[in-house]
Amino acid sequence: MQFVSDRGREHYLSDIRAIGDFLAAGESYEVCLTTTFRSPECPPPLDLYRRLRRTNPTPHAAYLRFDPRRLCAQAQAQTPSDSPTSVPAAPADGIGPGGVVICCSSPERFMRVDRSRAVECKPIKGTAARGATPAEDAAVAIALRTDEKSIAENLMIVDLIRNDLGRVCAAGSVSVPKLMHIETFQTVHQLVTTVCGQLDPREDAISAVAAAFPPGSMTGAPKARTMRLIDDLELQIPRGVYSGALGFFSVDGSADLNVVIRAAFLDTHGVSVAAGGAIVALSKAQDEWEEVLLKARPVMSAIAACMSAGTSDAYEIVTRRTPRPLHERPLAQPTSTSLDVFETMLYAPTLGSEGAAGARANGFEHGFYLLPMHLARLVRSSAALGVTCVPPPARLLEHLLEAAKRWPASDPLSRVRLSLSTNGECRIERWPMPAGSGPSRLPNLPRGLRPAPPLAMEALLDTHDAEEARRVVLDVCPVHSCDPSLVHKTSARHVYDAARARAGIDKPIAVADGRAPTVAKPFDVLLYNEAGELTECCIANVALEDGRGGWATPPLECGLLPGLLRAELLMAKALYEAVVTLDELVAALRDGRRLVAFNSLRGVYLIRLDLQSQMLDRKVLGSLQPATPSKL
């Protein structure tokens, strides 16, 4: 069985060295770095949990299943199988659509509150593999108890948790009855500390959990700053349930929750296992990587054994994702309180006016290109991002038309930006487009009831030859396919701004004696994700000629903006979706196939990637693990 790692050994070691720089600079004292291993195979959930209980018994294990297929089983039994309301079936003990299962064999208690309002936390910091013989095992336990690095890890988290409990416990009640004692499990010894307190009369179990969440043993210290560092180190990939807490709150005021570690997470996409460790100034990078593998091993072995019906618990770990050195990533920044959601639209006052022939047939309405789609996406993104008081599309249209009355009719083409702030405030800005900067051709997009014939991409391309195509460069840092900022148009454009800065697009070119610069700036930056898959440009979606008369555009799952013109071209059968790896891109361009970019402001235009100047084969592609080949 094969697991794909979010980052390989070298990448993890590089991140640990970068954390060392953070620690030396006083940015943090301890950072809990994690990584995830994934497989598309999915074992029977209950079988996996039973096997974990046998092979890796722990005091805070848990099995939690949410499965709409099972919840709706009774309704489905009463519904004809061909009814659109029926729930899709799944194999026996399989996970239905939307289902998720957590199989957890956690050794760590996050927090317990009993009926007397006494609070107990038992953070784990310090791990060592069991010895092969009783004598060796005892020696390992003694070494762990006296290990300077493990003691430092544990002490810092104990101080953090004492501080967390001090916010909700009675003054002077927080104590440490057991400091760094050894608890032994099937495969490891752990260094555990018990921290206790008595809840203040004004507090309860819920406020106690809120004060200490997320568990300090899974973040580091100081908690807030370290969590921002972790976001950057882990490429903004949400940990999900992993490193959170799972347990119960009782009506009698008690509660008991674990820390979700040593767990498998199953859904219709497969299974994932996460593991990590605390990095302090005394950490040795290779030892930390070995600790990650040690912690993940029991869970991955159990999964492999389930998939082979118990005949083998063997598995291998492969790396598919691209190492991204930390110094090339943006540092953690505070969350912006002035986030704007926006749409940029092409405005041509002579097109799409009411009563004009073909007003809808050419894609313009009220002078705006793809207007209904722009308004719908703005409302959809605003709601998804928590904008309050989102105006309906009809109200936004009123604002646009009122603003358009004040614009001079002498400008044939304009760029219009419609923005919504976090409180729902609407703002409209307009900039005339310089002559020659507008689209030379825009798709004719019929809006009828009958399906239109497929749209030929050739009819949309500029008549420029390949030498006059707009030059783009390939970024040196990948985006992450799970980054939520890629799927909405917002003022938080750090991913794109950083790429443009690295390419020098926004940097003024110094020109001496009035002479023209010898090297023109690139027009845009071509982006790719952590798996070495093409995604988009900073200002446009892209498509690659496939050599068979078709054009392939990367699917949204690769991590890109769902462009409106992209959606229209897909609907018009001018494009199809396919993963395009960087290897395939280079091979296609060397074969003379064309690359295009497109958006609703500039239309469709040829772009040119200079392979020789970037030495892609050696510098970029050499550092990428090959992604699963597509069939271009």
From TrEMBL:
<dbReference type="GO" id="GO:0008153">
    <property type="term" value="P:4-aminobenzoate biosynthetic process"/>
</dbReference>
<dbReference type="GO" id="GO:0000162">
    <property type="term" value="P:L-tryptophan biosynthetic process"/>
</dbReference>
<dbReference type="Pfam" id="PF00425">
    <property type="entry name" value="Chorismate_bind"/>
</dbReference>
<feature type="domain" description="Chorismate-utilising enzyme C-terminal">
    <location>
        <begin position="9"/>
        <end position="295"/>
    </location>
</feature>
<dbReference type="InterPro" id="IPR015890">
    <property type="entry name" value="Chorismate_C"/>
</dbReference>
<dbReference type="Pfam" id="PF01063">
    <property type="entry name" value="Aminotran_4"/>
</dbReference>
<dbReference type="InterPro" id="IPR019999">
    <property type="entry name" value="Anth_synth_I-like"/>
</dbReference>
<dbReference type="InterPro" id="IPR005801">
    <property type="entry name" value="ADC_synthase"/>
</dbReference>
<dbReference type="InterPro" id="IPR043131">
    <property type="entry name" value="BCAT-like_N"/>
</dbReference>
<dbReference type="GO" id="GO:0005737">
    <property type="term" value="C:cytoplasm"/>
</dbReference>
<dbReference type="GO" id="GO:0046820">
    <property type="term" value="F:4-amino-4-deoxychorismate synthase activity"/>
</dbReference>
<dbReference type="InterPro" id="IPR001544">
    <property type="entry name" value="Aminotrans_IV"/>
</dbReference>
<dbReference type="InterPro" id="IPR043132">
    <property type="entry name" value="BCAT-like_C"/>
</dbReference>
<dbReference type="InterPro" id="IPR036038">
    <property type="entry name" value="Aminotransferase-like"/>
</dbReference>
<protein>
    <submittedName>
        <fullName>Para-aminobenzoate synthase</fullName>
    </submittedName>
</protein>
